Target: DUF1345 domain-containing protein
Amino acid sequence: MDSGRKTPDHRVKARERLPRHERRGEPRLPAVLATLAAILLYLALPEQLLFAPRFILPALEALLLIPLIAINPRRMTRQNHFSRTVSLTLVALIGISNLVSLGLLVHALVTEKAQQGGPLLLAALQVWATGIIVFGLAFWELDRGGPVVRTQAERSELPLADFRFSQDENDDAIEEVADGSSRASDWVPTLMDYLYVSVTNSTAFSPTDTMPLSTRAKALMAIESIAALITSLLVIAHAVGVLDK
Model:
């Protein structure tokens, strides 16, 4: 193979679309949409799965989202201690509230109140979907210092990785694969990559193509897997019970 051969234009353009190119940063909109989806899913839960007045937590979460949008309205290129604290607090708030709702769902599905379980089965889907979103956001916020640091800092300055993606080890693969690797194209994961990790972890109950490296990443993936497994087992058991009647 001729190592001096010029890289095709379409590959050059693909690299320029990556968030680290010229330190453009990730777009803000996907994270906003994911957060709003989690808020709306919470608002739609049945009353018995809420541990506070329905609009209190969503209002607080929306309030926390406002300064994050103000600091980085289009692309995520700026960060300070305040914005970092607010973003982590927002994810933690959504995550904790969803786990509490899961606990209330478990209680409801194993009591006499669950005899008419249609709404609760739908609520279980809402809790499961919210879990995918919030754990995806948590992975996105924590890995390699967060979305701003991942695109704005030099490679040598990035914190240790919490996850190992396939792109991180593809530099010795065939040319069309290696050109998209982290080493060749300066690739870093975006929100969609972390949401995919969350989906696979929530459905397979284990890592698939992306491996957790740090203790906190393993702990978060374990919590998500257990929560998804509990939800799935309860829904299946309840559905079987309803069909047997």
